[in-house]
Each structure stands twice: as C-alpha cells, then as structure tokens.
Amino acid sequence: MSLLVTGSIGIDTVETPHGKRDDVIGGSAVYFSYAASFFTHVRLVGVVGEDCPRSMFDVFKERDVDTGGLEMRKGSKTFRWHGSYVKDMNEAETVEVDLNVLSERAPRIPQNFLDSRYVFLANTHPVLQQEMLGSLKSPRLVVADTMNLWIQTERPELLKLLGKIHGLVLNDGEARLLTEEKNLISAARAVLRMGPKFIVIKKGEHGCLMVSDRGEFVLPAFPAQKVIDPTGAGDSFAGGMMGYLATQGTFSSATLKRALAFGTVVASFTISDFSLAGLQSTDRDRIDDRWHEFKQAMSF
Amino acid sequence: MSLLVTGSIGIDTVETPHGKRDDVIGGSAVYFSYAASFFTHVRLVGVVGEDCPRSMFDVFKERDVDTGGLEMRKGSKTFRWHGSYVKDMNEAETVEVDLNVLSERAPRIPQNFLDSRYVFLANTHPVLQQEMLGSLKSPRLVVADTMNLWIQTERPELLKLLGKIHGLVLNDGEARLLTEEKNLISAARAVLRMGPKFIVIKKGEHGCLMVSDRGEFVLPAFPAQKVIDPTGAGDSFAGGMMGYLATQGTFSSATLKRALAFGTVVASFTISDFSLAGLQSTDRDRIDDRWHEFKQAMSF
Asked: Relative to the CA of B35, which of A33, A96, B105, B266 has its CA 20 to 30 Å away?
C-alpha cells in the first residue's frame, strides 16, 4: 500500500566525534522515505529552495520513492541545519538553523497522492499537519511526529491534531513536556486520553516504548557498537515502522510490535555512518537478518 | 544451592518526591538477600555496630536467609546513608554518609558458610572482596559489584579481583569510567578482556545489557508506572539474578538471560515502595506472573 510522508528536506552540516560532513542531504522526510522504501512504495511530499542541487535527490533514483511531491520553489532557500554531537552523542547541539522555505506555505500534495492510505506527518507546524491531512481522501492509518516548539507555542492546534490521528511518535522529553508527567508510562497514558490510539515514545540509545489500550510494549535499542552520526535515527525509526505497517494491512498488537522492531533495526543502520550513507549501505535482506539477530538478542 | 552474599548493611534515611523515611533498613547485602530469598537459600555476611537494633533484622525471619554471618560489633557504629531522589529519581544525591563500621575490618565468614558454591561480592573495597573470596573452599559462580570510588582509587586491586571472578555487575557510568569507552558494548567488551566471563551493565530505568563471548543480550526495564523509591534497585536486580542462577546449575546463555529478566522483575517490586516494603509486599508467585508479563511486553 502507498505510504505518504510530508516533512522537512534539508541541507545539513553535521559534526560528531568521528568527523564532519558539510552540505549533506537531511531532513525528516528524507530519512523517513529512504527507511520506509525498504518495505513499501513511498510518496514524498516536501519543498526545497532554488539553491538545492537536483542531484541531491539522486539518492532516491534506486529506491521505490515517488518524488513527484517534491517542490523546488523559485525565490526560496532550502532549510539548513548545522548540528553537533561532539559534546553528547545523544543530543544534537544546534549550531545554526535557517528554516528558510519551511517558514513559508506548505507544499501541495499532488492529485495522484491524495488516495494514500498510510500517512506519516513528520514534524512541522500542527496547522500545516492538519491541512495536509484534511486534503487526503481516505487515510487508513495516520501517524504524526511533533516537537518541543509546537508543544510550547501551538498547544491548542496540536491538541486538535491529536484528535484526528491514530498514532503519535515523539521522544521522551517531548512526552514529558506535553503531559507534565515524569514517568513515561503515565505520560503515554495521558497522551492516549488526548486522542491517539497508540503512542510511541523514542528514547534514543535506550530504545522505545509503545502504549495503547492493549498494554505496554518496551524495546531496547539495537546493541550497536558503531555509532557515527545519530542524525535521522528517529525519522528512520518511524520510516521502518510505517513502511512495515503499510505492508501488513492490520494493526494488531503483534503487528505493531514487529513494526517497532523493524524501526529499531533500520535506525541502527542509519547511525552507523553519516547522513544517508548508513541506509545506503544496507538492503532488505540485511535488515531482515538484523531483525532476527535483534529478536534473538532480547529473547529469554 | 547455597548463595553467599557479602556487602553493606545500613541504616538509611531516604527522601523522594513521594515522601521521606528515617532510619530504615538498607544496604547492598540486605536488598540482595531479600531479593535472592524468593529463589533460594541465602547466607548473609555483614557487619553492623552496637547502635543497630536487633529488631531491624526481623524482616528476615520469614525469609530463607541465614543471618549467622551477621556480626554486631561492640564499640562500632552502623553504616549510615542519607540520600535524596527529590531532584532526580534516576540518581541519588548523597546528603550524608557515615561509613562507620564499613571502614573497619571485614566481617568473618562463618565456617559453615565456607562451602558456598554461589557467591555475590557486593560493593566494598576490592582487597576485602579478594580476601573473602580467598577464604571460600570451592565457589562455582562468583559475581561481584563495584563502584566509582574503587575504580578511581584502587584500580590495581580491582583488576586483580577481575581476574578471579566469573561475572561483574556494574552500572553504565562505572563501566565507562573503568574502560574509558563511551559506547557500552565496547565498554563491556573491554571489561571482558580484564577477566570476567560475562558483564552485566545496569542502566537504571533504561534496563540492562549483558555481554559475554557468546554475544550481547539487552533488556529494557520493566515498564513501571509506580516508582516510589529507587534505593536498592541494583542490588535487588543482582539478588534476583543470582538467586535464580543458584537454582539452575548451568550458566548457558539462555539461563543467564532468564536470570537477568528475573532480576529486572524483582527490582520493579523494590522501587514500588520505600526501603524493603516493595519486596515485602510480593511473593514468588507474583514475581513469576510479572516475569511472564514482562516477557510478553517485549516479545515480537
């Protein structure tokens, strides 16, 4: 089934203890799309400025990603992010950020994408997330991400969005901020009362947690020895999760659990190299192998 | 099989966001013994001062714990610890600590304990740990804990100890300090090269990790909604783990994994109330039920 993603596309500069990369492809929708494309056909919706080299999207040529929703806007500049993990591999320090085109109007979803059944609304302004969701004909599973900024500044709109989606993916700090609950299980339960049917809380190197009315599911992160660049781990996690779900057609607890494990494994490839290089180095067979290895590493 | 533990016995004062308890029973050997006694017969070796009320050990009357190795030393004072989790439930702030009798000579292991086959050397000076280990006749599985202080001040003696034990249990910060490796898998592998056959790294609310030459095993913490007092969680974890191992007779990967899961579950009871009250509120049946619940909560 077709999986639609809308989110940021950016030009990143990233520093980690392992080196620095200038002007590499990044953004939530980019990592998500690449990660999900190991599982299903992906429709990418996003906008860049005229400064963005077309060649940057060559990475999608070999992938099952339809870039027909990619707008290159004249007179605008591409979103740019410069982050550093030199002090702490678990939290990016933003050295510089230029929203540029992301602060303008949202990209339009192409007509032939409007029948998408699986939708991931990557982090952006909750009004834009609602607008894009509203234009879709009959979405079957809608999952969104958000961030501290919107929780703090656009709470009423964010709460409206939460009433319209099936799942919310967010990190531990965001879950605590949204609910004012320190305990993550309590926080997830509080978010459930805001509308979504399931909540996935990402804890970075400490794994993730899913809570629904059918109970809790906890996963450690894949025990990775090689962590080169954590950028995009959360978006790749969501991509692997949604990509797998789009192939299943059911959202049983068992299916959601397997999906979270696929998200975990795909993210472990992302962080093994800079930018998209970690994902580019793998394939579905290697992902499946590592999925079984992961299952083994935590079964008792 | 008999499980011997040597470690601290203390009188604690603990503050958490949920309240304060003055002069309650605590110490590594106490939490360990109570936790392990759900599984096997425990031999407790430790020392307190003459200020310690005998009634404090009434908690062990109903348990399968032999307190014959408990020395009440005339002229000495009991170890006292005053900690606070008010600012951070994940890390105790030590308000006051008086080593008292713990800074004197070690307690003697009774003659009838010297044939113990399973041994846990809870955190104390590595010279004392080696002395106590040396007096045992034919230990079959020896696991030790340690702490920052000894890693920083008694490294040569600690390294000698590591050459004599089968397993080491320590927390993430200690593993990083001991090995100067940031990545925990790399840290655990570095400890393996120092002697032990397996390393268990405790990550508090983020679960634990075991590394041996047979691979890695990762576990999230039990998804607990009720965390009242984290004191003793790590020692209860070790107690549950060793208690289960002492009943098994083999140390296969599968057995070690199940043991870590039992440790995780027992610790989840400890943190649900102050001091030993969480452990006192449970029994082996409830532990087994939660073990299955935990297995379910992370199976995919």
From this structure: B105
